[in-house]
Amino acid sequence: MRCILVLVLCFFLFMSHGLGLKEDANTSSCIDEERQALLDVKANLIDLHGNLSDWASERVDCCKWAGVTCNNQSGHVIKVDLTFGSTGFTGKSLQVLNQLQSLNLSGINFQANPLTSIFSMSKLQSLDISGANLSGPIPHQLANLSNLLELDLSNNSLSGSIPFSFGNLTFLTYLDLSQNPLEGDIPQSIGNCSSLAHLDLSQNLRNGSMPDSIDQLSKLEYLDVGHNSLNGSIPNFIGCPFLSF
Ligand SMILES: *[C@@H]1O[C@H](CO)[C@@H](O)[C@H](O)[C@H]1NC(C)=O
Ligand SMILES: *[C@@H]1O[C@H](CO)[C@@H](O)[C@H](O)[C@H]1NC(C)=O
Ligand SMILES: *[C@@H]1O[C@H](CO)[C@@H](O)[C@H](O)[C@H]1NC(C)=O
Ligand SMILES: *[C@@H]1O[C@H](CO)[C@@H](O)[C@H](O)[C@H]1NC(C)=O
Ligand SMILES: *[C@@H]1O[C@H](CO)[C@@H](O)[C@H](O)[C@H]1NC(C)=O
Ligand SMILES: *[C@@H]1O[C@H](CO)[C@@H](O)[C@H](O)[C@H]1NC(C)=O
Ligand SMILES: *[C@@H]1O[C@H](CO)[C@@H](O)[C@H](O)[C@H]1NC(C)=O
Ligand SMILES: *[C@@H]1O[C@H](CO)[C@@H](O)[C@H](O)[C@H]1NC(C)=O
Ligand SMILES: *[C@@H]1O[C@H](CO)[C@@H](O)[C@H](O)[C@H]1NC(C)=O
Ligand SMILES: *[C@@H]1O[C@H](CO)[C@@H](O)[C@H](O)[C@H]1NC(C)=O
Ligand SMILES: *[C@@H]1O[C@H](CO)[C@@H](O)[C@H](O)[C@H]1NC(C)=O
Description:
Blueprint: H1 2-24, H2 32-43, E1 68-70, E2 77-81, E3 102-104, E4 126-128, E5 135-137, E6 150-152, E7 157-159, E8 174-176, E9 198-200, E10 222-224, E11 242-244
Parallel strand pairs: 2-3, 3-4, 4-6, 5-7, 6-8, 8-9, 9-10, 10-11
Antiparallel strand pairs: 1-2
GO cellular component, one term: plasma membrane
Subcellular location: Cell membrane
Organism: Helianthus annuus
């Protein structure tokens, strides 16, 4: 009996010690799989200025690497900023980082379109891939990122028209698609992006028309559709402080 009691006591001591250790442990240490994904990202980049020198397997805590931010509870990588003048990247290994909230790939000279790697990052709120040599159409699946607040794809070679699916981005406050060779109509569905405050479609749309649904964007503070060849009427934007047609 006493032996069992001692065993039970030992067990509880062990348990509480174990739990204690867990509480003391620095929970910001990164997740193995995500560290590996970031190392793959680095392996596929040309790090022009050596900014990613601390991205190394022996530096176990990837949450402390330059440009990386983790959630301090879960340890998941939630923010990646790769705007270091890197080049030659395909974006593929980013897919593993499925808890990302913010991704900045601005200025990277992509050799392949990375957008397909991003569709499943359902927590993404901020995505900046401006000035990154993106080409081809804007994939309609981008609207799968239903939590997006900020989307910047400006200054690329994106062609085709703005996807109708963008009407699903109802939280989006900032959309910049300027400086792309886009064409065709602005979709009627844009009227469903009811949070939009900043909309820049300048220097691209070579033809097409402005939908009347744009009148529904009651939160707009900045609207630039200048340097286009749009037809259609200028909507009633008495409340919009910045307007450029
Ligand atoms: C976790 O690491 C940070 C940075 O090294 C340190 O400031 C902090 O005290 C650590 N937290 C714990 C609980 O050890
Ligand atoms: C990248 O590295 C270069 C050279 O060390 C430095 O001048 C630059 O500020 C770094 N950029 C960032 C964003 O840290
Ligand atoms: C965790 O992150 C949140 C938000 O960034 C911050 O307010 C909080 O102080 C952090 N907690 C610790 C223990 O570092
Ligand atoms: C992305 O990084 C660039 C360069 O550092 C910066 O100018 C831009 O504001 C960043 N984008 C976002 C959405 O923070
Ligand atoms: C842009 O990407 C294409 C491939 O899509 C590549 O052929 C081209 O060289 C890139 N442009 C620059 C300036 O590197
Ligand atoms: C869209 O996001 C969901 C999760 O929110 C994911 O299961 C699905 O695979 C994504 N679709 C595509 C085309 O990636
Ligand atoms: C467009 O992107 C290129 C490549 O990143 C950059 O050199 C250029 O300064 C950008 N132009 C504007 C107007 O932002
Ligand atoms: C919006 O998303 C729903 C599913 O969440 C989908 O059924 C619908 O087709 C999408 N609308 C557009 C315009 O893509
Ligand atoms: C826009 O919203 C209306 C009403 O909520 C809905 O009927 C319509 O299908 C939506 N259109 C798109 C493109 O999401
Ligand atoms: C815009 O121009 C493209 C060819 O450059 C053409 O295929 C398309 O039908 C035009 N769209 C409109 C709405 O005029
Ligand atoms: C704009 O042009 C397109 C085709 O080029 C036409 O179908 C549409 O009716 C025009 N819209 C207006 C308001 O003139």
